TrEMBL record:
Organism the protein comes from: Thalassovita mangrovi
Keywords of this entry: Hydrolase
Single GO molecular function: acyl-CoA hydrolase activity
Domain Thioesterase: 49-122
Name recorded for this polypeptide: Hotdog fold thioesterase
Organism placement in taxonomy: Bacteria, Pseudomonadati, Pseudomonadota, Alphaproteobacteria, Rhodobacterales
Keyword Ribonucleoprotein applies: no
InterPro entries attached to this UniProt entry: HotDog_dom_sf, PAAI_dom, Thioestr_dom
Source organism, top-level taxon: Bacteria
């Protein structure tokens, strides 16, 4: 399935309906049923122990799936998370951006299921993995 929105179109839409994301996230790539998103790590994302907090990694995974869904279906702001399972596998570096590689495994009329691998930039092994389900509002 070809994307209905480009990265600049999607970021412009998000700046209007979900302005909180513009400071933290940057869409690096949109493809068929996939998106790559960068989280620009700042002090507000860190926890004691010199690592990125779990809630920040959850936000990255959640926003990556949201962006992937919108990229494929077009601007529908009310798609919402209905389920999430997340595994934290390694300690991410505190001064390094995180990269989320998200692919949609299913994109139906009502539900979308996405899989996200999160990496510290420049590190081959993922630091976290998330599986998320989104509910898509009726048109």
């Amino acid at each position: 399935m070809a994307a209905k929105m480009t990265a600049p179109e999607l970021m412009e839409f998000l700046a209007t309906v979900f302005p909180q994301v513009k400071d933290d996230f940057e869409i690096e790539e949109i493809g068929d049923m996939r998106v790559r998103v960068r989280m620009k790590i700042a002090d507000r994302h860190l926890r004691p122990g010199g690592t990125v907090s779990g809630p920040s990694m959850f936000a990255l995974a959640d926003c990556a799936v949201y962006m992937a869904v919108l990229a494929m279906i077009g601007p529908q702001a009310l798609a919402v998370t209905t389920n999430c399972s997340m595994d934290f596998m390694r300690k991410p570096a505190a001064e390094t951006d995180l990269i989320a590689d998200c692919r949609l495994l299913k994109l139906g009329r009502v539900l979308a299921v996405g899989d996200v691998l999160i990496y510290s930039e420049g590190v081959e092994a993922p630091v976290a993995r998330a599986s998320m389900t989104y509910s898509i509002p009726p048109r």
